């Protein structure tokens, strides 16, 4: 997978994180920078573990030799993963669930980290998809991690200032970025 495709997928997939953080940060009447920095750091570590787990799972599969003759099939499976994610983002963008905003001053670190577990499943599957496409380790690991951390920081600000309404746009943008990345991959594989 090329760096452009990895960037597009990482940016598209990080829109799930953006939407979630926007909804959470719209509830706070005051954002404590220290707590938010610690949350972002913990989230980054959690995401790094999920990406590494996805990469390591495919690495073990490749070490067994089962995948030697199936590289094109593995890429197809990865593309299907990403198509499912894109469709999920489109559905969430169109559905536009309403959220009752209520401001509070308490930031519950435990509650936030429990919700991050669900997002980590998507990140784990992203790690598998990137690894199935023979993405070099450094770009599979660093690009999605940096994209997600930057997205989380931007979402904190956006949610606090604009509320949860921007989540719909995030899902649509995520859908578009993932579809562009898939089109690029399919086009490159067909050549």
Number of helices: 6
Rg from C-alpha positions?
17 Å
Helix fraction, binned, reads over 70%
Question: Residue ranges: pLDDT <50 for 5 or more in a row?
Answer: none
Structural class, please?
mainly alpha
Tell me the major beta sheet. Answer: none
Coarse morphology: globular
Q: SSE string, helix = H, strand = E?
A: HHHHHH
Percent of residues in beta strands?
under 5%
Could you give the distance between the termini? 14 Å
Strand runs, count: 0
What is the mean predicted local confidence, pLDDT? 78
What does this structure look like?
With 191 residues, this protein is mainly alpha-helical. Helices cover 81% and strands 0% of the residues. It is built from 6 helices and no strands. α1 (3-25) packs parallel to α3, α2 (33-64) runs parallel beside α4 (109-132) and α2 packs antiparallel against α5 (137-162). 37% of the residues are buried. The mean pLDDT is 78.
């Amino acid at each position: 997978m090329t760096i452009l495709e990895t960037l597009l997928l990482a940016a598209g997939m990080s829109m799930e994180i953006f939407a979630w953080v926007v909804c959470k940060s719209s509830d706070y009447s005051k954002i404590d920078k220290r707590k938010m920095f610690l949350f972002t750091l913990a989230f980054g570590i959690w995401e790094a573990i999920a990406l590494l787990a996805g990469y390591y799972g495919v690495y073990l599969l490749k070490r067994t030799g089962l995948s030697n003759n199936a590289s094109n099939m593995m890429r197809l499976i990865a593309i299907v993963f990403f198509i499912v994610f894109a469709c999920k983002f489109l559905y969430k963008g169109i559905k536009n669930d309403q959220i009752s905003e209520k401001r509070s001053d308490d930031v519950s670190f435990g509650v936030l980290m429990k919700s991050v577990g669900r997002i980590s499943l998507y990140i784990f599957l992203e790690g598998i998809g990137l690894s199935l496409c023979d993405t070099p380790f450094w770009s599979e690991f660093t690009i999605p991690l940096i994209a997600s951390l930057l997205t989380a920081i931007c979402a904190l600000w956006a949610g606090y200032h604009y509320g949860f309404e921007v989540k719909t746009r995030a899902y649509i943008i995520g859908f578009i970025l993932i579809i562009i990345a898939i089109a690029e991959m399919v086009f490159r594989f067909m050549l």
